[in-house]
Amino acid sequence: MKILAVANNTFKEAIRDRILYLLLFFAAVCIGFSRVLALLTVGDEVKIIKDVGLASISLFGALMAILIGTGLVYKEIDKKTIYTLISKPIHRYQFLLGKFLGLVFTLFIMLLLMSIIFLALLFLHTYTIEWAMLVAIFFIFLELCLITAVAIFFSCFSSPILSSIFSIAFYLIGHLSWGFETLLQKMKPGVGKTLGQILYTVLPDLENFNFKTEIVHHLPIPTKFFVYSSFYGIFYTLFVLILSMLVFRKRDFI
Questions:
Q1: Helix axis angle, 133-155 to 160-175, nearest 10°
Q2: Residue 12 class from Cβ within 10 Å (0-12 exposed, 13-18 middle, 19+ buried)?
Q3: Roughly what angle, to the nearest 10 degrees, separates helices 160-175 and 177-186?
Q4: Structural domain tally of the chain?
Q5: How far apart are the two ends of the chain, measured CA to CA in Å?
Q6: Residue 152 domain-assigned (yes or no)
Q7: Structural domain includes residue 196
Q8: Contact yes or no for 170/202 (Cβ under 8 A)
């Protein structure tokens, strides 16, 4: 109940943040612009709308998670409300989990609104409901849950600006990990390659959640990839949340 109370309060606080609606507005503009871009570009118009639409949902969803998530814990410290909270019979892990769940629910609402706009645009163009898009959107949501956990982790020991930089770096590294894998394949066996492989294993691979190309181009996707990506997202998110709890537990607010 305590976790749900914190989550409810976090949701009410986050939903009033103006930057959330600003990002939602720009996401809607980009999704709408995909229609114009499709008319100006040589190629399959529907595929261009799908590509740009899904990319917009993913990008602006990540920005929402980062910009709101990195300030969740810091705001409590800055406003001195953290002292009141930790003096009450509530564990610090309950506080963090509540913050996480509250923001995840906020992102779910924002993702739902962006998806409705995107699917409505597709329907106006094709006169069919593209249910397959929901698969790509589901994995975008899993990615946002992980990014939210990462943003909260950095906010436990850093300022919002630094936390945002770290979280954006995490997002970029996660989507460029394929380049690191290619580099490892070209490296000669040795200590350097071994260290590189360890680093590659630890670093996130957010491309595990990227099914946009396959969905848009109607390519077959083995079920095992869906299962692996789902478990990867769940366990990596839990891992980051546990790290956040350990860091937050050791932090001294006095």
A1: 140
A2: exposed
A3: 50
A4: 1
A5: 27
A6: yes
A7: no
A8: no
Q: 174-184 burial, b for 16+ CB within 10 Å, e for fewer?
A: bbebeebeeee
Joined together, the tokens standing for residue 204 give 């996130």
Rg (CA), the chain: 20
What residues make up the domain containing 243?
Answer: 2-168+222-250
232 domain residue, yes or no: yes
Q: How do the pLDDT tens digits run along the chain, 254 residues long?
A: 778 888 888 888 888 888 889 999 999 999 888 888 777 776 677 888 888 889 999 999 999 999 888 887 777 776 666 666 666 677 878 888 988 999 999 999 999 999 999 999 888 887 788 788 898 999 999 999 999 999 999 988 888 888 899 999 889 888 887 666 676 677 777 766 677 677 677 778 888 898 888 888 878 888 888 899 999 999 999 999 999 988 888 776 55
Query: Which residue type is seen at 248?
Result: F
Asked if residue 53 belongs to a domain, the reply is yes
